[in-house]
Design a protein that fits this description.
Largest sheet: 6 strands, antiparallel
Number of strands: 20
Structural class: mainly beta
CATH architecture: Sandwich
Family: Belongs to the archaeal-type GPI family.
Helix content: under 10%
Keywords: Gluconeogenesis, Glycolysis, Isomerase
CATH class: Mainly Beta
Radius of gyration: 17 Å
Order of helices and strands: EEEEHEEHEEEEEEEEEEEHEEEH
GO molecular function: glucose-6-phosphate isomerase activity
Protein name: glucose-6-phosphate isomerase
Number of domains: 1
CATH topology: Jelly Rolls
Shape: globular
EC number: 5.3.1.9
CATH superfamily: Jelly Rolls
């Protein structure tokens, strides 16, 4: 299997879950998200599954870029998931909304995902209120980029129980997660559920009825994100490309009627 070139000397580890940083890279000690920590966002909170569901390292990159990352208020994070299932659900993150950022003039900030290994579904909905608005399940594989816009509730799902999912993402350096409304609805508006080997979707009855749109990733070339380069390489060649992540108000019109 040909590996996607991330342009970062960072390798995902399986046992235990985590990351190994090359000599030219920096990164923190990983944070482990356990099954007990995410149960409230699952369809079946009492399910069995991997004890450590995923491992996350926020603020990684090449050492030579650390000053410019701090200056631009950008942060690159990497996440790797365990293989397997959570009962009859796929391995996944808990749903959340990005907290409003002072640096972003009170906006919730977007996130730019890039899949490195495995198969992903980036699920997102316009709001975590009773009416979730438009709901999307974006299917992505290695090299695919998916953007989650400001204020949207979302979760990342592993769509292959046999291959651990690994991805990177550009985030605001002041990142924070708001779980309250999602947890108040006992999860997001749609639950991914396995029926045998097929991954299907079941509505969460805590929300008003909605339609789920399944699709492949949109093109983001108008933002300077081109498919032939990794999102870290794009930053390396032109650091200002991702200024919209910590400052989403700079492209306010872009988010109107956004389709991921």
């Amino acid at each position: 299997m040909e590996l996607f070139n991330t342009n970062l000397n960072i390798q995902a580890l399986i046992n235990p879950l985590g990351f190994e940083y090359g000599d030219d890279c920096f990164g923190p000690k990983v944070e482990q998200r356990t099954l007990d920590a995410i149960r409230k966002s699952l369809k079946n909170p009492h399910c069995n599954g991997p004890e450590v569901v995923y491992s996350i390292a926020m603020d990684v990159g090449k050492k030579i870029h650390k000053p410019v990352l701090e200056e631009l208020h950008l942060l690159f994070g990497v996440v790797t998931y365990a293989a397997g299932k959570l009962g009859d659900e796929p391995v996944r993150s808990q749903g959340h909304i990005h907290s409003k950022s002072v640096y972003a003039k009170g906006w919730s900030t977007p996130e730019v995902y890039e899949i490195w290994q495995g198969k992903a579904i980036i699920y997102m909905q316009e709001t975590a209120k009773d009416n979730p608005g438009r709901c999307f399940a974006v299917h992505a594989g290695p090299g695919d980029v998916v953007i989650v816009p400001p204020f949207w509730a979302h979760a990342t799902i592993s769509a292959d129980p046999f291959v651990p999912l690994t991805f990177g993402a550009w985030c605001d350096r002041e990142y924070g997660f708001d779980y309250d409304e999602v947890r108040a609805h006992k999860g997001l508006a749609w639950f991914p559920v396995y029926k045998g080997d097929e991954l299907t979707w079941e509505p969460n009855k805590s929300y008003t009825p909605s339609v789920l749109i399944e699709k492949s990733p949109a093109s983001y070339e108008s933002l300077g994100i081109t498919p032939e380069k990794s999102i870290y390489k794009i930053f390396e060649d032109n650091p200002g490309i991702f200024e919209f992540v910590p400052k989403p108000h700079l492209i306010e019109q872009y988010w109107t009627n956004f389709i991921p």
